[in-house]
Amino acid sequence: AAGVIQSPRHLIKEKRETATLKCYPIPRHDTVYWYQQGPGQDPQFLISFYEKMQSDKGSIPDRFSAQQFSDYHSELNMSSLELGDSALYFCASSLAGSYNEQFFGPGTRLTVL
Amino acid sequence: KNQVEQSPQSLIILEGKNCTLQCNYTVSPFSNLRWYKQDTGRGPVSLTIMTFSENTKSNGRYTATLDADTKQSSLHITASQLSDSASYICVVSADSNYQLIWGAGTKLIIKP
Fold this sequence. Notes:
The complex is a heterodimer of chains A (113) and B (112). With 113 residues, chain A is mostly beta strands. Chain A has strands spanning 5-7, 10-13, 19-24, 31-37, 44-50, 53-57, 64-68, 74-78, 87-94, 103-104, 108-112.
């Protein structure tokens, strides 16, 4: 069965650079969530989209923005990167109404040097 | 404050043995409770999801229980295998939004 796809899987950037992470949800899933997981920490919810509209906002820094496109894929744009942004970024997708059971992608490991 | 607490923090058992992981929550209003398995550096994989009306749910060698009155859940792993070594995370969803409240996880190590 198709799963959530994230790209790239690994990304190395320098401080103050920008990065764009992509997420392709499971086909027919209409909701996408973004999480940030630091080393040894539980995932922190950043933002979610339902039917291409922002549905909820968590601890997403102002330097980050995200959107969901007409094909339901989502992109997380990160600017003015800081060392503390180094983390695993997970995308999850769900189908609204099914207890919002979230299926997670493999994650993008971002390293900021 | 919505919180999810898990115990133990870490656990080491021998291959073939059983174990039980605990989860206590103070999330209100409660919608559902999930157990995820997360291998290091990989995305969490859902094991079970239970609503308040469900007391127990199994997925192969994994059996989760839920007591909505005491706000406790457990995950029982039977006949452990080396591949069970991972973090097991209890996650509770509040009814008011789609956000998930994550426990800190239990790091399980299975030794041969």
